[in-house]
Amino acid sequence: MPSAINDGVELYFELHGNSESSNGALVFAHGAGGNAASWWQQVPTFSDSYRVVVFDHRGFGRSVCPPEQQNALLFESDLIAILDAAEIDSATIVCQSMGGWTGVRAAVFNPDRVRGVFLANTPGAVQNQVVADNWTQLTERIAEGGGLINRAISEPFAMNHPDRALLYQQIAAFNVGSAPNIRDNEVGVSPQQVLDSKVPFHVLASDLDPLFPPHVLSAVADDIGADRSFVEGAGHSTYFEQPSTFNGILGEFLDTLP
Q1: Per-position DSSP letters for 73-117, written without gaps between them
Q2: In 3D, which of 11, 28, 36 has the Cα closest to residue 172?
Q3: Tell me, what's the pLDDT at 116?
Q4: Which pLDDT score is estimated for 138?
Q5: Which are the contacts of 246, defined by CB distance < 8 A and separation ≥ 6?
Q6: 3 state DSSP class of 119
Q7: Is 150 left (phi over 0), alpha (psi -120 to 50) or beta?
Q8: What is the distance between the alpha carbons of residues 157 and 150, in angstroms, rounded to a whole number?
Q9: CB 3.0-4.6 Å disulfide test: which of 55, 56, 95, 97 passes with 13?
């Protein structure tokens, strides 16, 4: 498999789909409970029509990185290094949870390389008062739920699909020693910075998401001028729990892009 180098770290990525597609490229940026393997329900759907990239963030999966170099400030330059290695001029970034920091920061600091950003169950790096208040409450909610991985999938999904819930945990287990600093203030950006990028955004929220509830993501969408969608019966990982719904909403967003 190909790889890219940034700041001394080798970044694992995969290329799928049609390199000659006129629809352009999609890059899927996973969350803290995932890696490139997380997108197994999206890659087959979109690889017929798009050039698809999945990758492991630094410190996750096969992108081995010591803790002192696991800085989310490097996420967007990691992404640009991957685009360069894949010879992709610009792409739409599909972001799950932590991946939103990658997509938002890439749009703000490299808008010429980003065609659009799809924020799924994440505010990304966007900072406003509602997001700040949510961070204050988040640690307690995670502890009540038994940890980040347990809170990343909804209880109904775990009960009704124990096999897929186990698969989610098994994929997450490949992330050894990952410690992203996405909560650091210096990693965040203002809504105005996002607006100034002129990059189109879409925000997806789910009613059972305990990490970034719909009211939080609605406030983010309002502040950055993004369209939004709402999914019922899904938790924090809509892409994993309801892939058909997720893929359909993503496809509709892609159709709106110039």
Answers
A1: GGHHHHHHHHHHHTT-S-EEEEEETTHHHHHHHHHHH-GGGEEEE
A2: 36
A3: 99
A4: 82
A5: 42, 120, 204, 231, 238, 239
A6: strand
A7: alpha
A8: 11
A9: 55
Name the burial class of residue 242, with classes exposed (0-12), middle (13-18) and buried (19+) by CB atoms within 10 angstroms of its CB: buried
Q: 239 with 168: CB under 8 angstroms? A: no
- Confirm if 54 and 13 have CB atoms less than 8 A apart: yes
Tokens (6 digits) for 18 = 């049609």
Q: Which amino acid is at 202?
A: H
> Residue 75 and residue 81: Cα distance in Å, rounded?
10
Q: What is the CATH number of domain 3-256?
A: 3.40.50.1820
DSSP 8-class letter at 57 = P
Q: Which residue has the tokens 């996002």?
A: 194
Q: What is the pLDDT of residue 1?
A: 73
Residue 72: name the closest of 117, 113, 109, 112 by CA.
109
Q: Per-block average pLDDT, block size 10, for the chain (258 residues)?
A: 92 93 95 96 97 97 90 95 98 98 98 99 97 87 61 92 96 84 86 99 97 97 98 98 99 97
Two tokens, residue 254: 């892609």
Six token digits for residue 172? 């997450």
CA distance 49 to 124: 26
Tell which residue, 160, 144, 148, has the closest CA to residue 233: 160
Q: How far does CA 253 lie from the centroid of its chain?
A: 15
pLDDT at 104: 98
What span, in angstroms and rounded, lies between the C-alpha atoms of 247 and 112?
Answer: 25
Tell me if 151 sits within 8 A of 141, measured CB to CB: yes
Indicate the pTM of the whole model: 0.95
Which residue in the block uniquely carries the two structure tokens 């650091």?
Answer: 184
